[in-house]
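REQUEST FORM: STRUCTURE PREDICTION
Request ID: SP-0412
Submitted by: Lab K.M.
Chain count: 1
Length (residues): 141
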Amino acid sequence: MTIRVDQMMQLLCHVSQEKGMTAAVKHSGRGALLAGVTAFVGGLVGGPPGIAVGGALGGLLGAWMTSGQFKPVPQILMELPPAEQQKLYKEAITIVRSLDCADIFQLTMFVMGSGHLQQQLVRVVTNYLTRELSAEIKYGE
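STATUS: Completed
RESULT:
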């Protein structure tokens, strides 16, 4: 059976939903930009002391911004751009490629009946999210 990228994303969503996975994607670039902008504005307004005050305030705001809000992993997976979904697909397909299933429904039922396969797919999703998106993962079965 040939598994399309969208079918694999649905399978990964199903597994991650079953495990109650949520993730907070950190936006460190935005936080750093905010700290730099506030330091610059502080420098324009208050000179050298303004740089220090603006940088400190910007750093605090940036840290608060990058703490991230936890979202369900299935939502994050479905919002990934096609190129990123393809990367994740290539990692996950190695686990299910050799399984003999007639269609995606049968594959999903087989995976959901196997704790070992679920764990392997969860590990793929977790590794991808932490490596590519610098996400923090929580599980809540």
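NOTES: The radius of gyration is 21 Å.
Reviewed by: T.R.
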